[in-house]
Amino acid sequence: MCVTKKSKELVNDAACEEEVVERKVHEDFSRIDKPFGLEQHVFNWLWLGTAHVFAFYYLYLDITGRARTSTILFELLYGYIGGLGITVGCHRYWTHKTFKANKPLQILMMIMQTIANQYPIRKWSLDHRIHHKFTDTNADPHNSTRGFWFSHMGWLFLPKHPDLKKKLKTFDMPDLESDPIVRFQSRWYWTLTAVIHFIIPIFIFRYFWGLSMLHCIAANYRRYVVSLHITWSVNSVAHIWGEKPYDKNITPVENPWVSFFAVGEGWHNYHHTFPWDYKAAELGWKINLSTMFIDFFAWLGWAYDLKTVSQTMLKQRLHRTGNESHNLPVIDEANCDKNDFDYSVPADVTELMKDCIHQPVWGWDDESIPEDLRNVTKTLRSKGIK
Ligand SMILES: [Zn+2]
Ligand SMILES: [Zn+2]
Questions:
Q1: Residue 1 included in any domain
Q2: CA of 235 to the centre of ligand 2 (A)
Q3: Among 145, 197, 342, 384, which residue's CB has the most CB atoms within a 10 Å radius?
Q4: Roughly how many angstroms between the first and final C-alpha of the chain, as a whole number?
Q5: Closest ligand relative to 129 C-alpha
Q6: pLDDT tens digit string along 271-310?
Q7: Which segments does the entry list as coiled coil (predicted)?
């Protein structure tokens, strides 16, 4: 309200304008919090339930030889373009702020993210930042201590835990709420989805394969459902089965299979230990198409300021919290080789890293990262340096 209740006097123009903008931002985002006026989990039953029915129908047609098997090639291609929109755009760029991107790359990533149709960037990032801050507690949207199926997909079909509801209301993301591309996508999400997620692929199935409309829709849903399960496996499989070389005290694990299907997102023990690393893994291109994508655009000059963990920081952390399954020799603190330090670092990074363990961080712009720790993080391809 721009008029005070008591006096009915106008408040000053600046405050009024601010309020109008705030309300508009809220409207842009709230249309996603209750899609078509339905509670999120109720909407998911209808939305994702329908998607699964069509996906299994097309799988059945395919198995029984009544579908065009070669559509799988386009399904994989379009599915993985959307997948990279999630892993590179939504995850490593918007959620974790692990690198910077110019406007054309931001727009490209937003379009790719819309192909995947996993809700708008802002909502996806909010859930994911909360996941990193409160991993495997009741405030974690896909708390894996509630079992495989809950963390895989059950969390989307059940009412939210009260602890999570509280966090969703209070968790601040001013960076994304003021990002014009994020706001544009949230405002026009269902229109963009209709065109990019449905109409374009359906047209391609029809034009190139001559499928009936029903089969076009079913093939598109199969592509969608497969990509959903791949994403969901990061929250389920990569929190259960695998090694913990970097931090044995946390639930996320290293799972090469998840990395294979989820283009590099299965190196999850590393990722939760160092969520600001643009590789989301220690080794850059090892089963990590998403890192290749970022490196390619960094080479073009579209991506820059890539954050990564220095060898010193890595070794100190391995020494302190690793489970000794890592094949790098851990640092010998007594005979620490000073040459190993890439540049001036505080004597004891270990002390700094302790803060991060007690207070997990969501990414590079999280205020809880100690300033000293920022100073020992490497930044690759800073703007102007190729
Ligand atoms: Zn993450
Ligand atoms: Zn996780």
A1: no
A2: 5
A3: 197
A4: 50
A5: 1
A6: 999 999 999 988 877 788 999 999 999 999 999 999 998 8
A7: none
